[in-house]
Records
---
Amino acid sequence: MLNAEKITCYCFNKDCAASIYNDTTCLSIQVPLEVALSRTLNCIECGAELLSPLLIEIKKDILNLIKDDQRHSVAIIDDDIIFHETVKIILKDNWLNASFYMNPEPVYNALYTNRNKHAEIPNIIFLDLDMPLMDGWEFLDLFNNLHRSLVKPVSIYIISNSVDPADQKRIKAYPFVKSFISKPLTRHFLGKINEEVSRNAAGLELKPASNW
């Protein structure tokens, strides 16, 4: 269950009388965070999308993460279709090189088949742990035997609802896993990912995020 924290969304259309830019008539609405992430809310005056400053910052951080589309391709592995839609809504048409999967098996098969093809291997994988067919742990074990033969490094970020400290401790056994991120996505962790991707692009060694 996603966190029930509420956030305030505003109309950012400068031409709308209900916009945040017109303080006396500003239209705002408070909604649970999971609602704001999983559906588009529209201004009743002009029809523009209602956004919160938090969502705007999250979008900026993710766009910065994948700004070099040729170098930073992303695979999302999660059996939660709402999570897929959340990411798509946040990014709209800007996520230019992301692939979405409901289970890890086709990702592993593609990595194995294309292990010598630079362009076919994602730079980043967001991986859920709890999935019915092949779970995240099975994928990590398979990837552990494969990653050294890949033509380029792949960074894995665990995206999970789990709050079990044992899971976070177990994850540390996999050196290619860069961080354990609790759902929903937060600006703090996206910032950490962006720092590490930038470091990797500069040819420096990737290390686990400091929140560990």
---
Amino acid sequence: MAIQAYVNFNGNCREAVEFYAKVFKTKEPEIMTYDEMPPDPDFIVSEEMKNWVLHTSLEISGSTIMFSDVFPGMPLVVGNNISLTMITDDETEIRDAFDQLKEEGRVDMELGETFWSKCFGSVEDKFGIIWQFDLDSGESY
């Protein structure tokens, strides 16, 4: 059984997921909006929220990452409480994704060789999500 990450946003989930689909060259995500929920008198969806993302997911390098916008009023702290790590044996794929994510973001650790990897780096993207990249060379360090 796989463990999957679930990343929440505050109204900009669609923008983030469409950006990640482009960066990681995935198929276009299927997005369920709050407007598609069955009516519930205890859970009123405002006009502002109707197009917010209730649920979507992307398949990134064999892993499913799920995403949504939180309901207004629910606490959301963007920060270092979650990071997503891409491990692949394709250095070009790592460098391409890293370069796109660092635009309007912040590089925490530039791509380079470490004692455990020939190519490792970390970047916080423009949405506040931390991504780590690790080249899987098949060698043990």
